[in-house]
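hey can u check if this looks right to u? its 152 residues, i copy pasted from the old doc so theres a chance i mangled smth
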Amino acid sequence: MKKLTGLLLGSALLFGAVGCDVARTSADAPTDVEEGAVVENPGEVEETLEDANSEIRQDQLSSDIRAREQRNDIVGDQEVRDDSDLESEIRAKLEANIPRAKLTVDAEEGNVAIVGTVPSEKEYESIMPLAEEITGVNEVTMEVEIMPSTES
């Protein structure tokens, strides 16, 4: 019985890990980075902005980043990052620095794809430098549109 329980629990964890193959800065960011990925209500950014600017969310982002750095210090090579770590680190960096963005991040062998929308040229221009700051990123490609906010 113990073996069966362990097998079922392990299978559920594996299935959950496989299902989370992209990182999104908001719930309404595209669900994948395939061509034609859609952002729902791209001009409506107020809800995303409020969540990203909340003190609790900022504390969560900082905590996530610190935990990853500490884990990488313990495990060894700082230059090597799993794709899921890259996605998570880039998402956290983008969310913290571009709170009005609706972006999805996917990484494969250090090559990162970012799709979605931002409400201004300034925010668009900051995506690439922020993503490239993360250790382990080889190349960044973007399919990001500038969609001015419809909110006053």
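The chain has one domain: 22-146.
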